[in-house]
Amino acid sequence: RIFQVRSKVSNVKIAADNGEL
User: Fold this and answer.
1) According to the lineage, what is the superkingdom (predicted)?
2) Residue 20 has pLDDT above 70, yes or no
3) 9 burial level (CB within 10 Å; 0-12, 13-18, 19+)
4) Contact residues for 15 (Cβ-Cβ < 8 A; gap 6+)
């Protein structure tokens, strides 16, 4: 579950870097 949370956070950061947020 910890890995899932970290993955989700990473996806949010990636989305932010891509200008999707």
Assistant:
1) Bacteria
2) no
3) exposed
4) 21
Query: CA-CA distances (angstroms) from residue 6 to 1, 11?
Result: 9, 9
Q: Pull the structure tokens for residue 17.
A: 């870097």
HSE of 19, CA atoms in CB hemisphere, 13 A: 0
User: Span 1-21, mean pLDDT?
Assistant: 83
The reported pLDDT for the residue numbered 10 is: 92
Q: What is the C-alpha radius of gyration for the chain, rounded to an integer number of angstroms?
A: 9
